[in-house]
Amino acid sequence: MSDASITTPVNSPVAREDDHQIPKAQLSWRSALAILISIQIGSGIFSSPASVDSNAPSPIVALSIWILSGLLSWAGAGAFAELGTCLKRAGGIQEYLRYIYGDAAASCMAWVWIFAVKPSAMAIQGIVIGESIGYGLNDGRQGRFLSPWTMKGIALVVMNVIVLLNLRSTNASVKLSSAFTAMKLFAAASIAVGGIVVVLRHLAGHRDPDNSDWYTSSWVAPRVTMNNGHRVDWRTLQWWRHLEHYSSAIYAGLWAYSGWDNVSFIARDIRNPATEIPKAINAAMTIVMFCQLFVNVSYYILIPWKTIQSSNAVAVVAARSNLGPVAALIMASLVSVSCAGTIQGTIFSVGRLTMAAADDGYLPAICGRIGIPWRTSELPSISTSHTNDEHSPLLQSHHPEHVESTPDGSAGNEREQHWNTPIVAMFIQGLMTSIFIIIGNFSELLTFVGMSVWAFLFLAVLGLVILRYREPELERPYKVRYIAVPIVFVAASGVIVVGTDGVQGEVSRHLENMGR
């Protein structure tokens, strides 16, 4: 994007506080918008439809779940906008928890987030890349063409290439974010346009007998679905089983929207955060919600409904069934790029979280260093959490006094101006993500990430409600208008945290025994 850069030029002005040089905020709301969209429109829009549809009695209910998930995410995003502007602390959830509950909560969150949640989330993206390519190479008759370990190998290669690009330069990472955002929006738009084309052809008298569900079957009436290989007849299902399936469907929908909280990680890189952060979040959530809804309507139009329930690569299947194997391979490439963009955006944000955790003493100090560790050991630690200025805490370029000069006074080796990124933090992410790719699968990692993430989201937004009453005088440049919004989010996220498969199963068995 041409209007902003996350890296600070060597000769850019800096603001001093506590004897530390802190680069001025350089990120516009448009840049933040691109990063937020890049994170959210990832594997979820292409892989979650199967989980949502198989846990809903009809397409109209499934689409309603997509809307509900978006509204819940929007409520959380608004709450995080208030937290980000009233606390003005880099580090996101970690710093909010520290301020509200103390160091113990922040330290716990930092360790879980850095070493488990974010690497697992990126591993899911990598696994979807491998599976999409596998379905793209599928001949349509013999299942996935690539073996599971081959697909894991693809995921590992993609993951580590992105890490290396981020290690070299945050300038490169921002350019990648822009490119990934454009390509993933193109992929989503292609699916939506494909649905419109099929509808127009149908209105013109062209019928596709192999894909007639969308105009011959009811979008409202309960039906029979397949969920993880089990037949579900919604017309005879007990009411508590409905709740169990709805919970799973909402969970899958929320996964597709995940990433909205990441703007708070880079809040102090945004110029005029009081007005720009809410603007970025609201614009991003509007765009993402419409994308999710239109794309999922198109899935129901483009492919047979039973196929939606049985494939985690519905976009690739839609391309193959309507345009052939070449289109399937192209769509697989676009889906892979989309997931790679999500990995890119996540690495960027979690690197900054790691820096904040190291500066607070939750992690070894070396985790917060910028550049090659043994060449930057003399640099002072940069405060990322205990200052209230609106300047960026992100360590981006070498500061002027640390740039080596040649005898003629010019800057030294130009390569020294690269690798000015949180190398240790990103190395940790690359290593942990690779481990999760090797040992995990899509469904296991999805459950693990969801349980962990929503527990901390629950605590963070509950903290907003606590602050409203504990510190009513706290300056809030942006304030959620109705306190009911964060309260609804807290209640819903609490249900999600306790609504794991194990808990749901025990409750269902108990209710079944009572009914006998």
Counted up, domains total 1
CATH class: Mainly Alpha
CATH-level-2 architecture:
Up-down Bundle
Order of strands side by side in the largest beta sheet?
1-2
The CATH topology is Amino acid/polyamine transporter I
Question: Separation of termini?
Answer: 63 Å
In round numbers, the mean pLDDT is 75
**Morphology call:** globular
Low-confidence stretches: 1-23, 376-417, 506-511
Please give the radius of gyration in angstroms: 24 Å
Count of DSSP E strands? 4
What's the main sheet like?
Answer: 2 strands, antiparallel
Class by helix and strand content?
mainly alpha
Strand-and-helix sequence, N→C? EEHHHHHHHHHEEHHHHHHHHH
Number of helices: 18
Summarize the amount of helix as a percent range: 55-70%
In CATH, the homologous superfamily goes by the name Amino acid/polyamine transporter I
Beta strand % = under 5%
What's the SSE blueprint?
Layout (H helix, E strand, L loop, with lengths): L13 E4 L2 E4 L5 H12 L3 H4 L1 H6 L4 H29 L5 H9 L1 H34 L11 H21 L1 H34 L9 H4 L7 E4 L2 E4 L5 H19 L15 H30 L2 H6 L3 H10 L1 H35 L63 H17 L2 H29 L13 H15 L2 H15 L1
Antiparallel strand pairs: 1-2, 3-4
Organism: Microthyrium microscopicum
Membrane topology: Multi-pass membrane protein
GO molecular function: L-amino acid transmembrane transporter activity
